[in-house]
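[step 3/7] fold_predict: job queued, chain A
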Amino acid sequence: MMNALAENGFLKPFRVFGKRECRKALAALKAAPAPADWHKGHAVTSQSYLDVARQREIVDAVAAVLGEEIMLWGAGLVCLQPGQRHVWHTDVETSGGDGHAVSVWIGLEHTNINSSLEYVTGSHRLGVSLQKMAFDKKVSRYDADSSQVLEWAQELDSQCSLEQLAISDGDAFVFHGDLWHQSRNSNAHGTRTALLLQYATPDMPIRIWQPDGLEWPFRFKAHPRPPCIMIRGENRHDANRIISMPLTEFAADTDRQLQRGAPALSSSIESLDLP
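[step 4/7] structure written:
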């Protein structure tokens, strides 16, 4: 698996949910409490998110690439209405991560060839993010089309190619943190909903970007550092803010309260300056 991801930037998709499981998982994720600190902080407040992120087949695939020390730093739903587009980009938080980060994209609803990821194979090896390339070309990535993006990649590596992911609801796609990718929902009806889980080794610093930090040059906040959870192995580094697993007990209780109709407060995890 490691060789496949190192060469192409992704692994072959595999099935994690059946149709009924997709519906059940989607309902649970939509009912989850508010995320902690930022929109990708669902895993530290929702047992439902954490349960999916810890599924053995998913973690085994991630471990084949990252090794036995695995940190989950991001979890959230990515929804596109018909005609909506998530423009070309490299994931800001892990850009330049040298293979220490992977994302797992799981289709949950209305996922097909018309609504899944489009990506440039080998783009993770180019040594430059899509945002930096667009900046250098003086072209807004919001205006860049797929043929133009491919042309940029092939200027650096003629072996790069453009591919559209042909997967269905319940399939998982593991890809490198530096891969150039976009998605568009070209279906006539139905919101395309996917779950994005983002993993890294705990020695890789993850930071929250500034509101204007998604374009090149990337800009990050000093505080708060995003809450992360160890999924496998031990954290022997001080690069990130690791939330201990007992928080999942609180998350499970919060989920149960929501299901009973009890109100929920948004979450924030803060560090105190103590003498």
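[step 5/7] annotate
The two ends are 48 Å apart (CA to CA).
The mean pLDDT is 91.
exit 0
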